[in-house]
Amino acid sequence: MRDVAVVGVSMVKFGRYNDKDVVRLASEAAVEAMRDAGIDIKDVQVLVSGNLYQANGMVGQRIVKEIGATGMPVINVANACATGSTAFREAYLAVASGAYDIALAVGSEQMGKMGLLGGGGGGDPAYNPEGIMGTNLMPGVFAMTGVEHMRKYGTTIEQFAKVAVKNHKHSTLNPYAQYQIETPLEMVLNARMIAWPNTLYMCCPTGDGAAAAVIMSAEKARQYTSKPIWVAASVLTSDPWTERNPTMWDVNTLTKMAAKQAYEQAGIGPEDLSMVELHDCFATAELVHYENLMLCGEGEAGEFIDKGMPYHPNMGGKIPVNVSGGLLSKGHPLGATGVANIVEIVWHLREQAGDRQVPGAKVGLAHVIGLGSACTIHILKR
User: Of 312, 332, 348, 367, which one is the catalytic site residue?
Assistant: First the structure.
């Protein structure tokens, strides 16, 4: 496998775009990423498009008709919430394998207010506990994850709520976030309950958005930049075999497996990370992923947030998590999220993140989990 670098990135501010369709959003991100890399569409040898809800609409081919059809191969990817990050990984592998020198990964989604339902059905409710209880809806799944952590480790609802307080505070520094509003602890706790212990402000908003990245071989990258951002690890996991189907979706094992592989592939440990952008679709998810990504010990996530460890360094943090505002503020247009997390890491490693810049950022980890099941982790370094 060849060394691979990210040379150009871009994203559209997440929000709700009634005047633009998903192809227009994706095309804007793609053009800006190519401009950032110093190339145009004639230089791109393969395009990978990640999109979930419009997946049957050949979004990738529609993008190239918008930005320039060249006859290149176009691949469309759908992989739950990990759709965008899987598209990035496919583009990475296309270059790392030696098949191509320049690839373009685009993640896009137009969801409006449709809600984060997930699951996509999922079995006969006559014997499927998720179907009987309605817990195949994502709020229910991640509520149970939080309750189980409470049962095992004594975690409190206030500790989960502090995740939302942190991410909303971070969002005030990010012009690309869908919402840029602080929510004090009492405001989070007193908001409408969605699925206990997650209140409204502990749940991510859905919406529209797109992000893109230009990926090049090492030799090609050095022709375009003197400061490439290297892909040190690219990992995709799915659920391991078990003797029987679990009674609830496991949001932990996938990430633990992926983290172990990613650290080994990159030749680093969690102590070497400058920053993390992880999949905080709900506040309970972020807290358990502190442990899954080995940012703290098993059962220590509540103390980790109590001590302010995952805050931006300028706010007293030591291991900054979701300085973008995370999905809780940035929004979660499913197909765009995975690429957007990578874009955020790249901006920090280039020292282009403006007021939210993590000082001296050298290594970043981007994590996405899509239940059903798929988990990606990418480690980037300068």
Answer: 332
